[in-house]
Amino acid sequence: MSALFNFHSFLTVVLLGICTCTYLKMQFPAILEQRTGFRGFFWKAARIGERLSPWVSIGCFTMGVSIIFF
């Protein structure tokens, strides 16, 4: 089933996207400088990862545990 119709898969894709964008912004800040257009979506995901870092990390940990055990 695709991630659009399965809520568990959708959350996994969203969390991985936020974590990946945050990592890329920390390593290569010039890539995500543009705040508008298509790259703006990734800039916003990186901003969410920066500001909500403890909550995003808890979500990633919980999602990882649920994938491994359930």
Automatic annotation (TrEMBL):
Cellular component GO terms held in the UniProt record: Golgi membrane
Membrane-spanning residues: 6-24, 52-69
Protein topology in the membrane: Single-pass type I membrane protein
Lineage: superkingdom: Eukaryota
Subcellular location, principal: Golgi
Free-text function comment from the UniProt entry: Involved in the early part of the secretory pathway.
Protein family per UniProt: Belongs to the KISH family.
Protein name: Protein kish
Classification lineage: Eukaryota, Viridiplantae, Streptophyta, Embryophyta, Tracheophyta
